Amino acid sequence: MRVIRECDGMRICLVDDDKSQLEYLYALLQNWSLKLDIQVFVSIYQSAEEMLFECGNSFPFDLVILDIQMDKMNGIQLSKRIREVDTHIMIIFLSGIADYVYEGYEVQAYRYLLKPLKEEKLFEILEYMKKTIEKKEKYILYKKYGETEKIMYDQIMYLESQGNNVVIH
Known about the structure:
By secondary structure, this protein is α/β, with parallel strands linked by helices.
């Protein structure tokens, strides 16, 4: 196991099959990050399957912004998979239609936003997330068998040094 870093910045995941939408969201996140001098780490995926392939059963993010209408697995299905593993991640749905708004409640989504996304709406959410993270329990990210995993500080009983390795109990 290799500890990647203690998480003091924001880790945000974008999942959308529309490349121009991903570029727009990324630019907004960068603008907000620079404006407030906040470290933001952004992971971008063009499908739910790509995210699941990369992340496995570990979702090391504070916020996931999901498009609902994607080719094979839609955003609602992906959010249900995320919730099976992690109930702490803030999920926001982004869609061109309001048809799935009530399904967002099933996975405790924070917001359901309609496209085109307005900068002030996203910044409002990021401000809320920033305040939430400041109050939130701290965690570390580590690599285990090639996959990034997240462990909360309150889940750690003690650390044990074994040569060049650290064992977390």
